[in-house]
Amino acid sequence: MRIDIITLLPELLKSPFEASIMKRAIEKELVEVHFHNLRDYTDLSYNQVDDYQYGGGAGMVIMIEPIDKCISKLKSERNYDEVIYLTPDGETLNQQIANNLSLKGNIIMLCGHYKGIDQRARDLFITKEISIGDYVLSGGELGAAVLCDAIVRLLPGVLNDETSALTDSFQDNLLAPPVYTRPASYKGLDVPEILLSGNFPKIEKWREEQAYKRTEERRPDLLENSEN
Ligand code: ADE
């Protein structure tokens, strides 16, 4: 998989890709991530990429031309499956969207800033608009980092234990069950007996029950939308 991220602030984005799972995925060549600074695609003085909005109102809008130039250059080099714009008015990210995107080959992610980007750029180039939640960030960079992390950990070979993404919360519309590690007893708090029993069918059943219980308590909406 190849991900091209178009941003005004590449430095804000880089560190999540230089640590942990995403770093390992890049080192193992399971994913390539490339950053493109929109300011490299403008001919205006001071590398201007934004301007006042027509009709008046507070906030600057990113102009279509640098977006066009950057995306057109990338598209001239290879085909892309999706051109995603990170925006609070996009479709809210969930596990299903991450699963689908993890099956793609080449993806562009465009990060907005200020009041957003000229609507014509959205109409012309964007195939998918994604929000990471109902709150407004200063720009799309953190959203792009979140989206990349959610996708990259699903790529085959990225996680050590390949089944571990399958047991994540949301993969079956249930939250994950509680987990424990050593010591078996800490300040009077004991690990549930069943987990020490070695009876794996029973442990599996307990985990399923706990996942269901936790989902019922915390996210009953997930149960309404599934057949569990
Ligand atoms: N840009 C600003 N806010 C955002 C959000 N909630 N999700 C994705 N991109 C954004």
Summary?
With 228 residues, this protein is of the alpha/beta class. It is built from 8 helices and 9 strands.
Layout of helices and strands, plus pairs?
Blueprint (H helix, E strand, L loop, with lengths): L1 E6 L2 H4 L6 H8 L4 E6 L12 E3 L7 E3 L1 H14 L4 E11 L2 H7 L4 E6 L7 H7 L2 E4 L9 H12 L32 E2 L2 E2 L9 H19 L1 H5 L4
Parallel strand pairs: 1-2, 1-6, 5-6, 5-7
Antiparallel strand pairs: 3-4, 8-9
Write a structural description.
With 228 residues, the protein is an alpha/beta fold. It has 2 domains: 2-152, Alpha/beta knot (3-Layer(aba) Sandwich), CATH 3.40.1280; 169-227, Trp Operon Repressor, Chain A, CATH 1.10.1270.20. Helix content is 33%, strand content 19%. It has helices at 10-13, 20-27, 64-77, 95-101, 119-125, 141-152, 200-218, 220-224, and strands spanning 2-7, 32-37, 50-52, 60-62, 82-92, 106-111, 128-131, 185-186, 189-190. The strands form 3 sheets. It has a 5-stranded parallel β-sheet. It has a two-stranded antiparallel ribbon with strand order 3-4. The longest helix is centred in the last third of the chain and has 19 residues, at 200-218. Adenine (ADE) binds at residues 86-88, 112, 131-133, 135-137, 139-140, 143.
Highlighted features:
binds adenine, two-stranded antiparallel ribbon, 5-stranded parallel beta sheet, 228 residues, Trp Operon Repressor, Chain A, alpha/beta, single chain, Alpha/beta knot
What is the end-to-end distance? 32 Å
Mean pLDDT: 95
Record the strand order, biggest sheet.
Answer: 2-1-6-5-7
Total tally of structural domains: 2
| Main sheet record | 5 strands, parallel
Strands, total number: 9
- Which molecules are bound besides the chains? adenine
Please tell me the CATH architecture of the largest domain by its name: 3-Layer(aba) Sandwich
Shape: elongated
Low-confidence stretches: none
What structural class should be given to the helix and strand makeup?
alpha/beta
CA radius of gyration:
22 Å
